[in-house]
Amino acid sequence: MTRFLLGRVVQAAATLALLSFLVFALIGLMPGDPIDVMVAGDPRLTSEDAARLRALYGLDRPLVERYLAWAGGALSGDFGYSRLFARPAASALWPALLNTLRLLSVALALALCCGIALGILAARRARSRTDYAINLAAFAGISLPAFWLGLLLIILFAVTLGWLPAGGAPPPDQGGAAAMLRHMLLPVATLCVAHIAAYARYMRGAMLEVLEETYIRTARAKGCSTRRVLLAHALPNAAMPVITLAALDLGTLFSGALITETIFAWPGMGKLIYEAIMGNDYNLALLALLLAAAVTLAANILADIAQALLDPRVRLGEAAEP
Amino acid sequence: MSAPGSSGTAAAAQAPARHLTPGQRRWRRFRAHRAAMASAVLLGLIALAALGAPLAEAAFGHDPYAVDLFARYAAPSAAHPLGTDELGRDVLLRLLYGARVSLAVGLAAALTAALLGTLIGLLAAWHGGLIDAALMRLADIMLSLPLLPLLIVLAAIDPAKLGLPREAAAFDLVRIIVIIAAFGWVTVARLARAAALSLIRRDFVRAARAMGASPAHIMRTHLLANLVGPVAVATTLAVGNVILLESVLSFLGLGIHPPLPSWGNMLTNAQELIFSAPLLALWPGLAIFATVIACNFLGDGLADAFDPRADQRAG
Predict the structure, then answer these.
(1) Which among A85, A132, A170, B276 counts the fewest CB atoms within 10 Å?
(2) Which CATH number fits domain A90-310: 3.90.380.10, 1.10.3720.10, 1.10.10.10, 2.60.40.420?
(3) Across A251-255, B20-24, B73-77, B165-169, least confident range
(4) For residue A299, what are the contacts with CB-CB under 8 A and spacing of at least 6?
(5) Residue B18 pLDDT grade (very low, low, confident, very high; cuts 50, 70, 90)
(6) In this predicted complex, what is the ipTM?
(7) Contact B158/A147, CB-based, under 8 Å?
């Protein structure tokens, strides 16, 4: 298992390195460059000045050379300067990362609880009305455009009813937990819906499969109550794949939060990535994207470990490929 | 598509029905999935509405691109059944023309991804060894990348810096189809590879090989024919996902750019207008939602239709 994990980590590192070069090259292809922005901001700059500035910042050198210079700095912990925030890119990233993790941990925990509960409810009476209703709701949940749901929630709870703030995060020294909770409610709900739906469908399937097993029949024959059979015997085994799925989703959520954070003006990683890309803040965009990719890769490895720990039948590294 | 008798009752579906061809049985299973049937009808209506957009334009007598600053935020009326937007353009006509864009992007990107994915999956399964390992590693890597931020970077690229002409509308469409298909092939490729691998080991393929059938013949008649089901299901679900992605990118101002309407970019300004015109946010979102949920139900119904075991489970 150690060898397998080591291999995965090496592969993830190689992926990150490759991705950093690709994104570096792609960002260079986006409209405008930092010197264009400077020239636009200062009419006294001539085109000779612009050329001299390009030379000064090394923007006239070939792509590979520029990338190597960046990578050398990055390996020694220098990720360059963020133009939008006028401070080192790494330090601009830190508060955003914390904000996103705060949002995601609540959303993921809530989605798992609700999804597993709904899945059990649906599986308990398969093909009943409850089952069909949950199935219908789950289909609706995975088909809702998250940004539209966010807009509807804002219109309903912030504009019409005026119960909750339409967006933003409270300043760190004000309001305490209550204000934080009020600001988080709508974004968390927006993030959750699709995942609750996905987990509920998955959980129902896993539950129905487990309920066919002989050990469930044995438990029933021994006279266990339905509740005990469902919660004590079936749930632990059926929940395993769902928890693995949730670990995999951590990466999806991390980059999917982009749209939710943008709509609710939540100062997290997603909003930061979007603003950095739109604002030509190359260093910040590159670093934030790589961090998002690193989280996704780490989540995948974590999912493998979780599966191996929860299910003794899984042996990592052997029979991983069909 | 010709089902014997139109009474698809549960009793009839349960009967052994040995006289039916596989196609007829599929149709019967599909028909039993009521949500999928309703979705097929709904998607057909949406497609018809999209195709009929010029007719609606002629009937109402105004142009979906015509800006009329004296008629901004008009309430629904006979002339403008869904009112007008912040530039005084007719919302219904823009919805209909937006349907053309959203559906075209969804279909084109999903089909391109399906084609690419099937080819790559078949290639990997057929050759095995190094080619298989390399392609599947690539698929793993693609799956572990943060999709939305990368799509945004790709959608923000300036075509002029690549030496491409900046032909607004057509370029937008092609770019979004290409970048979504570039990520979309992975799912289909894994599916096609897994299915092809299990098929290759089956006796009928080995028999065909022993009789001297060429690889091309085996791929065409034995592998591709049996891949149609799973690939069709995955593609149907993909259409819905692509429409969602396109709407997100257009909403962020990166996919389809106005004045060409798409359901996503009709919502771009909706957020600033939630106080003055909340209804503007309603219709495009509802259109996206209805289309995507219909694709998902249709995919579910097709999965049942192509799954022979669904007969025993039904009822």
Answers:
(1) B276
(2) 1.10.3720.10
(3) B165-169
(4) A247, A248, A249, A250, A251, A254
(5) low
(6) 0.83
(7) no
